[in-house]
Amino acid sequence: FRATGLSTFSSLSLSLSSGSHLVCSLVHRHPDWRIINLDNVSLHCDCSDLLCNSKWYTSLFPRQGDVCNSRLVNHIFSTESIDVIFHLAAKTHVESSFECPSSFQHVNIDGTGILLGAAHQARHQLQRFIYVSTDEVYGAGVEQVFDESSPLRPSNPYSATKAAAEYLVRSYWDQYKFPIIITRSNNIYGPRHTIQGTLPKSQIYNVGTTCEIPIVQLARELVTMVSLVTAVNDWLEFVPDRLSVELRYPIKCEKLQQLGWRAQVSWAEGIRQTVKWYQRNPDFWPDTSEDQKPTREEAGHHPRI
């Protein structure tokens, strides 16, 4: 759960690991902004990489940073003048959502409702509520390419809760003309990534590129880049697929591109930078020793490297 803003311009935002990238980008590009960061630190979220050199940066960690803590969220909006909310906080991972769907509903839907309610009742008028959703709300698209008007057909508890949260966010536009923006992005990679631009008050934007790469090809590229080996297949271990596997999430992004947005880093350069960053930051890697084996969800259905 992350919040950002100037000393005279305040904003609030929520997120997991991709949110740390957003916070770092805001800190570096806008050192005079006041940034409040609430984060329910979990297994899949390590915020130790945040480079918080701004005098306006504040972080509130595990016990205080739960998006479902209505008392805390209401307190923030009653004591801070929040202008913009970046809402990225969510429980993720498809397989885990089947194992415990109620926790996904609580965080992704109830948490979003708590934030919307607090923002709506705040004494300071909100300028933007930016909800970061996922392309998975469209469901699988083997032949079809989705645009922002495509129907939502989520196929697992995770994407269903993200879609439900979208409807909740949009209901605040319908009822109160709440200044919302919804983004639906492809898979995000790399140590840092964010979007800039001036957007209308109630819109939905797909965020992605036309670059698609099979997971096995990606695994082989990573093995080659990290280890410089020739017998790549010897470094791959295949694990069972999930019961339901969606092979593609193709989306159209012309609507966002009309505003001037373009992907600034090619896939080849982006994956090179990502590998290089992880090589320079070995402490960021999880413990993969025999007595700390990855969980079923961490392993997923992908080849392990």
TrEMBL record:
GO terms for molecular function: catalytic activity. InterPro entries: NAD(P)-bd_dom, NAD(P)-bd_dom_sf. Residues 19-196 form the NAD(P)-binding domain. Residues 283-305 are annotated as: Disordered. Residues 290-305 have a biased composition (Basic and acidic residues). SUPFAM superfamilies: NAD(P)-binding Rossmann-fold domains (SSF51735). This is NAD(P)-binding domain-containing protein. It comes from Mola mola (Ocean sunfish).
